[in-house]
Amino acid sequence: MTEILRERVITSFGLTPDQRDAAIERNRDIVVTAGAGSGKTRTLVARYASLLADGLSPRAVVAVTFTEKAAREMRSRVRQALTDLLKQASTEEERQRWIAVNSEMDAARIGTIHSLCAEILRAHPAEAEIDPKFDVLDEGLTAALRMSMIDETVTVLANQPEFSILFQNFDIASLKSLLGFLLEHRLEVQETFEKSFDSVQVVSRAIRDGMQHETIYGCIQELRSFSQPSLLQDAGDKLTQQVQELLSLWSDAENALAQSDPVACASFLYKARREKMKGNIGSKTSRAKAIVAEVQAAYDECLNPIVGGKGANDSPPDRESENRFLSLYPIIKAVFGLLASAYQNALCQRRALDFDDLESGAARLLKIPEVRQHWQAEIASLLVDEFQDTNERQRQIVEALAGAPGRLFVVGDARQSIYRFRRADVTVFRSIQQRVRTQGGLVIDLDQTYRAHEPLLQATGDLLTTVMGTADDTSRPYYVPFSPLHAVRKKEPEYISHPHIEFVLGAGEDTAAARPLASRALAARLLELKEQKQIRTWDDVTLLLRASTGFAAYENAFEDAGIPFVTVAGRGFYDRPEIRDVLNILRALADSADDLAMAGLLRSPAFGLTDAALYQLRWQEDAPIPYWTALQGDLKMLADADRPRAVRVRDILNQLLPQVDRITVADLLKKLVDITDYRSILAVEDGNGTGGRLWRNLDKLLTDAQSSGQINVRDFLEYLATINDAGAREGEAPAEAQGSVRLMTIHKSKGLEFPVVVLADASREPRGGSEAIYLSPQIGLSFKLDPPPMIYRLSKWENQKQDEAESLRLLYVALTRAKDKLIINGHSTPTSKGEWQTKAWLGDLCAAAQVDADTLVQQSGTAMLLQLNSGQTVSACAVSAEAGGLPANEAVQTPSHEETDLAPLYPSLLEPEAAVIHEDEPEEMHAWRATGSADTIPPGVVGQMVHKAIELWLFPGDPQLLPLLETAALNAGLAHPIQRSTAVHHAVEYLERLRNHPLRSEIDAAAQRYHELPYSRRVDDHAETGYIDLLYDSPSGWQIVDFKTDSIRSVKERDDLIRQYSRQMRRYSGAVETLIGQKTQTRIIFLDDHGQIEIAKIG
Question: What is the 3-state secondary structure (H, E, C) of 458-507?
Answer without folding.
Answer: HHHHHHHHHHHCCCCCCCCCCCCCCCCCEECCCCCCCCCCCCCEEEEEEE
